Amino acid sequence: MDQLRTLWEDDPTTVLASAAALGVGLVASLVLFSRKKAAGPKDGELLPGEERDVVYFYTFDRWAYGANASSPCCKLETYLRLAKVNHKVVTTLTPHPRTKKTPYIRYNGHSVPDSNLIIDFLVKTAGAKDLDAHLSKQEKATLLAVRIMAEESLYFEVMHDRWMENTDKFVEAVHNEKAPPLVVLRFVFKYLIAPNIAKALNGQGTGRFTVEEIHERSAAEIDAFANILGEKDYFGGSKPSVADTAVFAILSGCLYNPWSAQRPMIEKYSNLVKFCERIKTEVYPDWDDISTGFSARK
């Protein structure tokens, strides 16, 4: 320290230049390291343990009221099961490196994010079943609107219900024996995650409305779903479509959740209840088994 002080007094320019060079070197090293780490395996390169022609489905863990609290994760799993795609579930809290979202897949060394992009990729690249193949152009257009209403509107209203109106209950619904103690998870959800969710909801728009106004919007959209479905088995007619997986993911997450604000809205329509039961029975024979072991069910 004394030598450094002497050098500073005799030649401060040299000290500053050396410090700057050291700082630049450290920053450059960190940047190169982070880029190398973020880059991961090359496109088309299998990770250790991966098999060819197997879809590795990266998703959140289960929750107390069905397949997944995340409707995009539930939607994609419903598609994979309906289309009988050879897949393996990989539970993760690490989002996709590019989109920072979950779910995503890896297939033959290719990493693909977003449930809609994934389904398109699997149909075009992996030869997976196209659930929309039986639809006319007009039907595809209608069901695109149905899917968007589920994923871009009702989705955020349900998010508001869970994160803003019923945070404690939501924590219990996703807490299991593998998670940190409930008191710790409750603190993380309420004070670390929920504020960011509130900002996101405000930016998206839903968070700027009152609870009553949000519930009115949900009721109107659920009524629209019921009227579009009518007496059909599925929104796509006699066969399920991609839109059916999206609507099921949203509605089932509310219908089988005892404290959901949207649950009584759905229960008003027997066709929506039967729709959810139909897919649950056909696609998820293990429904009751996969949703056990959570604090909310004890």
TrEMBL record:
Pfam families: GST_C_6 (PF17171), GST_N_4 (PF17172)
All copies of domain Metaxin glutathione S-transferase, residue ranges: 222-279
Domain Thioredoxin-like fold: 73-166
Membrane-spanning parts: 15-33
Coiled coil: none
Entries under CDD domains matching the protein: GST_C_Metaxin
A GO cellular-component term linked to this record: cytoplasm
Keyword vocabulary terms for this entry: Membrane, Transmembrane, Transmembrane helix
rRNA processing is among the record's keywords: no
Keyword match Transmembrane helix: yes
PANTHER family xrefs: FAILED AXON CONNECTIONS-RELATED, METAXIN RELATED
Family, per entry: Belongs to the FAX family.
Protein's recorded name: Failed axon connections-like
Originating organism: Hondaea fermentalgiana
